[in-house]
Design brief:
Blueprint: H1 3-15, H2 19-39, H3 51-64, H4 74-93, H5 120-133, H6 136-146, H7 152-157, E1 163-165, E2 170-174, E3 182-185, H8 188-200, H9 219-233, H10 240-253, H11 258-265, H12 276-279, H13 287-295
Antiparallel strand pairs: 1-2, 2-3
Helix pairs in contact: 5-9, 6-8, 10-11
């Protein structure tokens, strides 16, 4: 890992970015560094790349950057260049290099964003399968992602003290880094699922969700649980992230404005204001939305 990139990592850490995000930047830099050192083994630091190097790397990604030596996916190329632009821009701002060599290079085409949420029939099939299993914990976990929009790690990290459940209202306080804390209201459906679970699984653990082996449920355990139901239902988009995406899409489809949706989803800029651009993904129509649009002009 280059000394220049170490400086950038320290910057990310100061900003309080999530570990997963920092790891994504590391992976991008590792890919770029391996490629450029193959082209010029004498190069002392990958941060010394020129505009030509960036253009050549883009060509490499488009031709051989994917698995098996084929072209990289458009989404992979797009994210790679977003990362590289941020990294080299920081190098330039810190006067480590004369300018940002990524800036003038035409960016890879943006991938077509395919919705990854569940339609109403898929949601119903999924919930039927969970209810059939009789696990109130699985059902409560599902409802926190599907009807409250929690990320899987947010559900695992949730303390009982951060959960408020009353007969007519309830909320969960979600801790984020920087200015990204949020309070998510819980509707009657979610509150009922949580009450049933907490009654069936009494525990001395400070965390809401536990397992037989641990006082805190792991992210991988939740992912495995959802994968189990995906195998049973054969729903392709069924994942922890897909459940959260469903929450965002359903909010938009119900007519809620994007600022409210951004706040509920925890989409915030560094200054703490709602990030509407990030929330725009949920305005993309899914298959059921398109079918409903066509049916809306039917004569029968």
């Amino acid at each position: 890992m280059s000394e220049m990139f170490e400086v950038y990592l320290q910057n990310l850490d100061r900003k309080g970015l999530a570990t997963s995000t920092i790891n994504n930047y590391k992976a991008t830099w590792s890919t770029f560094k391996k490629w450029i050192l193959r082209t010029d083994p004498d190069l002392q630091d990958a941060g010394q790349a020129t505009q030509k190097d960036i253009a050549d790397f883009k060509r490499y990604m488009m031709e051989h950057g994917g698995k098996g030596g084929g072209p990289a996916k458009p989404s992979t190329m797009q994210l790679t260049f977003v990362h590289l632009n941020a990294i080299f821009l920081y190098f330039a701002e810190q006067k480590l290099i004369p300018d940002n060599p990524v800036g003038p290079v035409k960016k890879p085409p943006a991938p077509r964003r395919t919705p990854k949420w569940l339609g109403r029939n898929e949601q119903n099939a999924f919930l039927r399968e969970i209810r059939k299993s009789g696990s109130t914990r699985d059902y409560a976990l599902t409802m926190m992602m599907l009807r409250a929009g929690l990320r899987v790690h947010e559900a695992c990290d949730l303390f009982k003290s951060e959960l408020q459940i009353g007969p007519r209202s309830g909320s969960a306080y979600i801790r984020g880094k920087g200015y990204k804390d949020r309070e998510v209201p819980l509707n009657a459906e979610v509150r009922s699922a949580l009450e049933s679970y907490l009654k069936d699984y009494p525990s001395d653990s400070p965390y809401v969700f536990t397992s037989q082996r641990s006082s805190k449920l792991s992210v991988r355990a939740v992912q495995h649980m959802v994968e189990k139901y995906r195998d049973r239902t054969k729903i392709d988009n069924l994942s922890c992230h897909g459940l959260r995406h469903t929450f965002g899409h359903d909010l938009v489809a119900a007519g809620n404005d994007l600022q409210k949706v951004a706040m509920l989803m925890g989409h915030y800029k560094e200054d703490g204001t709602p990030n509407i651009e990030m929330t725009m993904i949920y305005t993309t129509p899914g298959t059921e939305d398109l079918e409903a649009a066509v049916e809306s002009i039917s004569w029968t």
